[in-house]
Structure formats: C-alpha cells, structure tokens
Design the sequence.
C-alpha cells in the first residue's frame, strides 16, 4: 500500500578548516551533523500489509581529517579518516533515545598514492578501511574490511591515446552475514566486493590539416 506520507526533511551543517603548508601540502579538518525527520520506510500495518510511512528520525554527526599532496611531477598522496555516529529513532516514540543505525560503519579511512614509473607510466594504489557494521535482525557486528586497488596507466607514444591495467578489491573475499530473520527463514547477504581485474585502451585519431579545413560534422574521431 502507498500509505499517506510527508516529505522527508533534512538539515545539514558543517564547519571546515583548511591549511596549506610547504607549497604542495594541504591539511583539512571538518565537523558536521545532519538531521533527518520522517525517513520513509515500509512497515506492516494493522492488517499485516506493508505500508509506506514516515517511520524514523535520523541523526548522523562526525568529523573528517584529510592530508593531501598536490599532483605534481607525477606524484600525489591523499590520506583521509572519518568518524561518524549514525543513529535513528522511531518517529512515533518521542521519549525514546537515538540508537546506532544498523548497516553503517562508524570508522572509515582511505589512502591513495600515485607515483611515476620509469618510462612514463604511473602506478596508482588505493587502500580503503571500513569499520564493523551493526547487523540487522540479529545481535552483533560484521567484520571490518580492508580493500585495496592497484592500477598502472600510461599514454601511447605521440599522444595517440592512453591505456590502463589493474586489479581492484585485492583483499576482497566472499562471505555471508544474516541480513534479516523470520519464523521460517534466515536470509544471508553476500559480500559483493570480489577481486576484479580490468584493462583498457583509448585511441585518438586526428584528421589532417587539409581535412580539418573542410566543413565537417566530426572534426576528430575517438575509439574506445
């Protein structure tokens, strides 16, 4: 059933401070909070049918820290950490206290490095950390996760295009955790970030100066 629902209302505030030092480095810190009233959710009504309603109020607050080196000479570094406190409460229960929102990590971090290799290619690596998440329907928390990517990229001689090859989610693994429970069934949710290998090449071809002088609807051709 569609139910009678009102729009969700959200207010967000953030204070940020950025400081540049040693010409190439930037440090950033921020604190923030978002409050949402009337989060729409499908819940069973008196007849046992699912009905959309403004079921929850949400509140999430936290802080971010970031350190970045500007992309110069083929080098770049970014390190980032975030702590957040996602909570929710039933809209109809004004006296209840906010509780931690299931499925949302409290701690996250990431680091990205780009370094030049001999001959012109660049090596890019990224490592992402996600803290444990409170499970839905059962007690406890999921495992923390560390995900890594490694990609090598470069340009084709004469500015004729570019190429890349890499592996993503190097430390990814398949596992399941209870997503919901009922009288008859326990649903298992798989971890979807499996290792993935990718490669690609992009070629560019430009028309000759004589051809460019003639009117044309396509002045250049790019093949991917």
Sequence:
């Amino acid at each position: 059933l569609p139910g009678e629902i009102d729009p969700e209302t959200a207010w967000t505030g953030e204070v940020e401070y950025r400081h540049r030092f040693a010409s190439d480095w930037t440090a950033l810190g921020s604190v923030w909070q978002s409050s949402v009233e009337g989060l729409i959710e499908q819940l069973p009504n008196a007849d046992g049918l699912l009905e959309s309603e403004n079921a929850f109020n949400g509140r999430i607050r936290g802080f971010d820290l970031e350190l970045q080196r500007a992309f110069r000479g083929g080098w770049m570094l970014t390190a980032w950490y975030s702590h957040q406190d996602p909570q929710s409460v039933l809209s109809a229960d004004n006296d209840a206290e906010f509780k931690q929102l299931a499925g949302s990590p409290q701690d996250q971090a990431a680091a990205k490095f780009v370094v030049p290799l001999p001959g012109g290619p660049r090596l890019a690596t990224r490592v992402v950390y996600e803290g444990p998440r409170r499970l839905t329907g059962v007690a406890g928390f999921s495992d923390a996760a560390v995900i890594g990517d490694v990609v090598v990229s470069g340009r084709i001689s004469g500015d004729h295009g570019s190429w890349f090859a890499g592996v993503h989610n190097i430390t990814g693994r398949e596992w399941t955790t209870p997503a919901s429970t009922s009288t008859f069934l326990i649903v298992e949710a798989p971890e979807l970030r499996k290792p993935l290998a990718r490669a690609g090449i992009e070629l560019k071809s430009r028309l000759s100066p004589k051809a460019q002088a003639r009117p044309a609807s396509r002045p250049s051709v790019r093949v991917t």
